[in-house]
């Protein structure tokens, strides 16, 4: 949903692999304001999720009031740029936030003819109901990174401490490795070939990496590792 200085201007469905946002008329989302760059930002579709990336704009982008360069969009995020506000609505977007769940487990109903002779349906004790409250816990996952086996120094460690990092040549072949509380995932962003992990294609959906996994896509060849404390 797009609005300018509080006035709603329209809705856009993110049903393409890549969306361009900017002042030029050939952008998918055209925002005609002086502070908007010709190509201001792009939104990349990855499975049910979307990644917003600043396209080296002059005035930058904010998400919920915080300046960003890359961001995995979450439901109800508000993108702000040069007077425009774009509200992202996607209830299927991945969320790493804590949540509470209450699970109620009821004992199965017993057939009357299965009761002992001295117990009748009227005299038997009530069936137990167990209630468990469970909170998802943010795990302290080790810091991870990759070695670029096709780089100038194959032993150089590239640590991935931010939420995501992309590898490859834009417009040709790009993969993304995202850091989440429970691990690191590799995802296809653009290019004809999907990433392969240890020689097997992982398709277009995020794939959980394990230590020493080999990630390949086109000219990209990365070896994933974890930094263990001690």
Automatic annotation (TrEMBL):
<protein>
    <recommendedName>
        <fullName>FHA domain-containing protein</fullName>
    </recommendedName>
</protein>
<dbReference type="InterPro" id="IPR050923">
    <property type="entry name" value="Cell_Proc_Reg/RNA_Proc"/>
</dbReference>
<dbReference type="InterPro" id="IPR000253">
    <property type="entry name" value="FHA_dom"/>
</dbReference>
<dbReference type="Pfam" id="PF00498">
    <property type="entry name" value="FHA"/>
</dbReference>
<dbReference type="InterPro" id="IPR008984">
    <property type="entry name" value="SMAD_FHA_dom_sf"/>
</dbReference>
<feature type="domain" description="FHA">
    <location>
        <begin position="19"/>
        <end position="68"/>
    </location>
</feature>
